[in-house]
Specification:
Layout lengths: L2 H23 L2 H5 L5 H25 L4 H12 L6 H8 L3 H30 L7 H25 L1 H29 L1 H7 L4 H19 L4 H12 L3 H11 L5 H29 L5
Helix pairs in contact: 1-7, 1-8, 3-4, 3-6, 3-10, 3-11, 4-12, 4-13, 5-6, 5-11, 5-13, 6-7, 6-11, 7-8, 7-12, 10-11, 10-13, 12-13
Length: 287
């Protein structure tokens, strides 16, 4: 097993542990809440899977970006939200139930939507860009659906042990991913520095900020829903983005570095929004 494969495996394990921790606490109503409100689900789909890919294509057309940066923006805009997001949304003041339900719904929808959207984007760029549904389905079921079901079943069979496992599973999954991220940054430092310039930083920061604004605007009247959809629109699943990039550009290692650069900038750009939403939630009502 190569170092890159080992790092990718560590990322998948950390995500699976985090989703397993969600399953230890999740209820069926949490997962079904999004489906029970189809108008909100439609707005979420519009924000994440329609407007963001359109924005990625426009940015690639307007700016003279490096090819690997263009590819990274496109595959990220097509990917569903990351499994770590419900915890961040909860900290920002959004409802974890909506975040968890949106996680599952968008992951399942991406199995059918991502291959079609990738084909359409390929037509726009006049290049072959395909994603096999089986590849996306394998990732979704392996690191989202199965760990979530395993955690839920474990909670039903052994509720007391499940309560004791929630914190260790969450801590392990939460700290393993940053540790792997730091390792990737160290090993890819030259590739990351090589990507800077040609407007890359401006475009990626603007892309994340636009995702926050689009999701916040389409989140509806509920402030908590706005927070959840804003973060969901701005943040994307690194595993699915990397798989889509590897399937189409296996000989270009710089695409993975561009995706990593986006994730790092995403953390920096989203942090002020998370703090702002948290302060707004705790501010006393006027009068």
């Amino acid at each position: 097993m190569t170092l890159q494969q080992s790092i990718l495996l560590a990322i998948q394990v950390s995500i699976m542990l985090t989703v397993f921790g969600f399953g230890l606490q999740a209820r069926l109503e949490d997962v079904l809440e999004v489906v029970q409100r189809p108008a909100r689900l439609a707005r979420s789909f519009l924000a994440m899977f329609i407007l963001m890919p359109v924005l990625a294509v426009l940015l690639a057309r307007v700016f003279e970006l490096r090819p690997e940066v263009e590819i990274a923006l496109v595959v990220l805009s097509l990917s569903p939200l990351p499994p770590l997001l419900p915890k961040k949304q909860d900290k920002a003041g959004g409802r974890a139930s909506f975040g968890l339900g949106l996680l599952v719904a968008m992951a399942l929808l991406s199995i059918a939507w991502l291959p079609l959207a990738a084909h359409l984007v390929g037509l726009v760029f006049d290049r072959s860009f395909t994603v096999a549904p089986a590849v996306i389905a394998k990732i979704v079921f392996k690191i989202i659906v199965l760990p979530l079901l395993a955690g839920s079943v474990f909670r039903l069979l052994m509720p007391r042990r499940a309560e004791r496992l929630v914190q260790p599973a969450g801590l392990l999954g939460r700290w393993l991913l940053p540790a792997v991220g730091l390792l990737i940054v160290y090993l890819s430092r030259r590739e990351l520095l090589a990507l800077l310039g040609n407007g890359t930083l401006v475009v990626m920061v603007g892309f994340v900020a636009a995702g926050l604004a689009i999701g916040h605007r389409l989140g509806g009247p509920d402030p908590d829903d706005r927070t959840v959809l804003a973060l969901s629109t701005a943040c994307r699943h690194p595993g699915i983005a990397l798989a889509a990039a590897a399937a189409n550009y296996p000989d270009d290692p710089h695409v993975a570095s561009a995706i990593l650069l986006y994730l790092l900038l995403n953390l920096l750009v989203c942090l002020p929004y998370v703090q702002w939403r948290r302060r707004r939630r705790v501010e006393p009502m006027p009068g």
